[in-house]
Task: inverse folding
């Protein structure tokens, strides 16, 4: 793990576990929110459904890692399909909230919640890894390292999201760096789609893997692209 990864991981943990815990709890509930946050909520709902559509409808017998599970909505849906889900997040506060929101029954599936690092070697092997909006705060080298780790942990598929680079996002990022952030959220780092494709093709760590389905979700202030990495 690079020093930049460790530093950014610490900032993300502090933000979601302390600074924004209450706001995140509200955003991921059905409580009324402002117009801007409503667009983000709607975008996240669409993205979650998109990632779930990349997975088999019947996940009975499959082991799935929900990397950066937040309050557990995707983990619950996967468990309802029969998956044995390991749901991990840096924030112990969000993990406790996810446990509180668990439905009384998950059908044939089950969920194990863990507060910790989603690329921890001790998590073991999975049939599928899903990382919804959980690598979006990292620089490109660190994101690639994380994706390489996910492919090493997965037998068949890695399904992740990233912020696709646009001139507007690039300009906002450059200008924003001139101002102190205070208690605002860690940067979302946009990345170019063609750069990811080139990396997967050339980086030996992705040997035997290829890009699969993708889908761009835009909803007000929410801009994110789902991307599938699949075993050849």
Result:
């Amino acid at each position: 793990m690079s020093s930049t990864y460790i530093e950014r991981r610490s900032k993300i943990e502090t933000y979601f576990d302390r600074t924004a815990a209450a706001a995140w709890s509200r955003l991921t509930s059905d409580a009324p929110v402002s117009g801007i946050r409503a667009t983000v909520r709607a975008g996240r709902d669409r993205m979650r459904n998109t990632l779930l559509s990349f997975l088999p409808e019947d996940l009975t017998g499959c082991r799935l890692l929900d990397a950066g599970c937040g309050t557990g909505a995707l983990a619950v849906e996967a468990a309802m399909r029969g998956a044995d889900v390991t749901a991990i997040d840096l924030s112990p506060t969000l993990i406790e909230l996810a446990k509180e929101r668990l439905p009384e029954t998950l059908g044939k599936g089950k969920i194990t919640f863990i507060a910790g690092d989603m690329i921890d070697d001790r998590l073991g092997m999975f049939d599928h890894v899903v990382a919804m909006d959980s690598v979006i705060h990292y620089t490109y080298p660190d994101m690639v390292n994380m994706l390489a780790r996910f492919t090493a942990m997965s037998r068949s598929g890695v399904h992740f999201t990233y912020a696709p680079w646009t001139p507007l996002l690039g300009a906002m990022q450059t200008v924003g760096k001139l101002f102190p952030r205070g208690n605002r959220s860690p940067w979302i780092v946009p990345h170019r789609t063609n750069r990811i494709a080139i990396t997967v093709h050339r980086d030996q760590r992705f040997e035997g893997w290829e890009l699969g389905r993708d889908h761009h979700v835009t909803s007000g202030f929410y801009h994110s692209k789902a991307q599938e990495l699949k075993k050849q």
Notes: The radius of gyration is 17 Å. The chain has a mean pLDDT of 92.
